[in-house]
Predict the structure.
Amino acid sequence: MSQTKPLYASFRSIGAYVPSKILSNTELEKMVDTTDEWIVKRTGIKERHIAAEDEYTSDMGTKAAELAISRAGLETEDIDLVLCATVTPDYFNMPSTACIISDKLGIKNVQAFDISAACSGFVYLLTVAKAFIESGMKKNVLIIGAEKFSTIVDYTDRSTCILFGDGAGAAVICATDNKEEAFVDVHASADGSYADFLVTPAPGAINPVSEKVIKEGLNFVRMKGNETFKLAVKTLTKDVKEILEKNEIHAENIPHFIPHQANYRIIKAVGDALNMREDQVVLTVHKYGNTSAASIPMAINDIYESGRLKKGELMLLDTFGGGLTWASALLPFAGENI
Ligand code: UT7
């Protein structure tokens, strides 16, 4: 009887899209009671990008996906699963943004669906893609993190409007029998008892669209910022230490630590706890702000396009977001350099 080789998931390519319009701290100073100095000191954010009025989550996701597919050396016909992570879908109920992106890419008759794990969405998708590939069900999985977060931000609330931006990132995860290219580990978790830390109360079954929703601004993101901050540092430090220990990898040997870009102080605290050098830590929060599910793939794309990310190099990802959800991943970049 012939022995079939085991299948592994490999991270074959990356792409991203950043909308052209920039919203600077100086502009925010004119909108709410804040200062550039406060925002930079407390978050590290200098500016964020905002999508055009007629530019939707699916448009940004499609542009990022086109890049990722071509950089994987594939055609759209080769993709056999399309997954999108977003909390700002084109439509809140149906159809899914993954279906709309598939259509815009010309991908027909292929399974497509969204997942909702807020800022952890992209790393959650790595776990889903891995499971589909290792089970032999799919070969080339397109994963997308895309957000038009500006649509759920209240630009009169200084505690949230300074943080978020729009954008998209995508990757193609392929089946391989080469263990060298395989994900080392992915881990995702959640604790719904902290659901009220980060929430958009409407629209949904609890708060369907009504005059009350509009009057009370229930359609905007609300965050217990300080509590979320403290829990993020604690949870991420523990989670990242665990994945490194489990896989017997020392933090100093990680060339690229790519954390969720929510706040420079969270990134610094986790990096310091791991004794990471500055050159290991990837930072984009100063120019994109927090783009939720798009933040990690946008950061990977940044180091790819600047030539910093080379084939075979190990990436350590960690993320934290609404739910609450968190996740981490250790994986080599298995793509070709441009
Ligand atoms: O991606 C999902 C996960 N999200 C996160 O990880 C975000 C986590 N949280 C954070 O990044 C931080 O908590 C914030 C940046 C949101 C806030 O920073 P903080 O150091 O936790 O500030 P704070 O909420 O404790 O507020 C301190 C003060 C308050 O004033 P009082 O009560 O001390 O007088 C706020 O009203 O800062 C005030 N404040 C501001 N001041 C100027 C809050 N926002 C602003 C602002 N400009 N934009």
Summary: The first strand starts at residue 8 and ends at 17. The chain is about 35% helix and 20% strand. Residues 34, 38-39, 42-43, 119, 158-159, 162, 225-226, 228-229, 232, 262-263, 266, 290, 320-321 surround oxa(dethia)-CoA (CB under 6 Å).
